[in-house]
């Protein structure tokens, strides 16, 4: 029988073989019939031996033909043909016509051996036929660890080829989307350049007013304040030009109760005006603070930046504000004095910043808590909340810090004024509605306008702060809670217009203190311990009226966490460049939910709160959401500004991460501006916020190293500065070139438990290039604690990390790593 050639299909070969077999068997039947009629009859063993040898030769030829067919391009498993069925029928007739052997002769032994060889060859044919079944695992994964040990062929089939073609189509589609995004980004960048030019033009009209400050200092000048009055006399001249000095005492001090000293730039006049100040009077403990504030409010003019500084060691009258007693001799005057809460609301509405320098915190804490709540509960006429700053100068020697505190407040007001002017100019230039409500840091916030107190609202009381003591939280009772977290989906393209983050939640036990260790404008910080993760965290809880609106809304907390996760993702992309000398990262943040906080001994506002690891250190602010950027020469300032620029280009102009602040290179609490105005909460200023950033941003060496495209026109014309021009200008401004990352360390937040860890920047880059994340040592130990399952595909036992899947909020796999697609297997570890 001739062997098959590559141009014949296996089915054709099998049909030819079957026809030859039919002819041979029919010839054999005719020979047997003729032999039975002949006078001389051969022995049965001779016939069997001859038949067996012929069968062996035929089967060997068939095996050679099958082997040749297996080497052909395609593999087809055919069902038995009519010819095959005819062969089987004739073979049965031949076997039926054979006589039984008598005594084993040499030919009989030879026939038995031949039959055994036939059985062996037939078994090989059957096995080869079974290998025509395509391995389903190989089809899905394009590889198989068992290779030839399995009785299945690993040749490609049509289904696998279709899958490979579809994968190529998806890859091509992704490239086409990337090209379209780049083309759209070119248009977005061109539009942004025009917007920035419009904002700069509008800013020139507003800059003079934005750079003018009106500062009023209101000081308690009763007998106990003598050291502070003397300090004011010696340092007031060095503070600022053009301010007002108002003194107040108490009702018992007659016409000396209130004194106003309007100051000018004339140094001699200033010295003469305040030199006669003296500390006297006072009467009872509380003082006439509302009277001093009323006189101060009349002194403000039209400047954009306004700041009132109150210096006091005693509260105002009325038992609501203190735990002492009022001198009822002056009951009528006390009752007729202005409402200090109304004064604070009016001050906030008029956009006047407030600094309270407390000399005796134990006496004034209750009053300060109430005034701060009133201040932040009122929206301003321009939509930008002003800052309420509290500074404690209670220890011996703190009096010398008076001038620096006032200067700092003045500087803060001027910076905020410029930021407000910038964002207002941006809105005017871009034709955007000018009113929104912005928090004291420049973030737009929920409308916390003044409302009547509700019965179930928590009383506005001073929050006693205590230093962090982790041993105290260890003795707190365990509370059932749910931990919520957000994650980017692995191996999926990110659509920056419509994020699709995976929301996961895990049941857990926590310990958290009701008392706080820190208090901000809208949130308090509490020590906390997650029992399941075995991690110390900081719970950030909204309080007061803010809590009734934002703190009890899962969507508000999710917005906070979403911004943190998006910023962390982009920070990772930023830090993967070897040209970035100072890598940055954001704290991994989640939020917790407690079903019944009151039963657990907590406040109602602690039903939901965000949590993150505690970072000890000096917090620095590098930019805000209004376009302000730090010019204090901070080490990471250039890197921070470049990061904001990078996020805009990396997302093809769809969003920008701003309001960067933190300890070292670990940032927290960012704000995101997005072209999709419904995303990222009320602080999203969209194009107006991005344009405001580019007005003040000057591309630096980090921008050049990352080849970031600027969005500003040159001073000489309308041409957009190119990346090469930026590189040249940066080289001129900074001779130092960016160095490739070698062994410089970086700080980052563990993506599982959020712990702060330090690793080599080069190791961080290498890990992510291999598709892995960088974890802290405790998480690595817990990841190595494996669980066991049997693979649903290959049935072998495999190991997996229950901790990793629980922290990622993913179901453990049903198959082993080898049984999953190669592009997913890297996520097992």
From TrEMBL:
For molecular function, the Gene Ontology terms on record are: ATP binding; protein serine/threonine kinase activity; zinc ion binding
Q: Which stretches are zinc fingers (C3H1-type)?
A: 129-157
- Report domain Alpha-type protein kinase positions: 488-711
> Which of UniProt's keywords are assigned here?
Coiled coil, Kinase, Metal-binding, Serine/threonine-protein kinase, Transferase, Zinc, Zinc-finger
Question: Which superkingdom does the taxonomy of this entry point to?
Answer: Eukaryota
Q: Where is the C3H1-type domain?
A: 129-157
**A Pfam family assignment:** Alpha_kinase
Q: List where this protein forms a coiled coil.
A: 15-69, 104-131, 158-185
Q: SMART domains attached here? A: Alpha_kinase
Q: Which PROSITE patterns match?
A: ALPHA_KINASE, ZF_C3H1
Gene3D superfamilies listed in its UniProt record: MHCK/EF2 kinase, Phosphorylase Kinase, domain 1, von Willebrand factor, type A domain
**Which InterPro entries does this UniProt record tie to the protein?**
a-kinase_dom (IPR004166), Kinase-like_dom_sf (IPR011009), Thr-specific_kinase-like (IPR052969), vWFA_dom_sf (IPR036465), Znf_CCCH (IPR000571)
Q: What is this protein called?
A: Alpha-type protein kinase domain-containing protein
Q: What species does this protein belong to?
A: Phytophthora sojae (strain P6497) (Soybean stem and root rot agent)
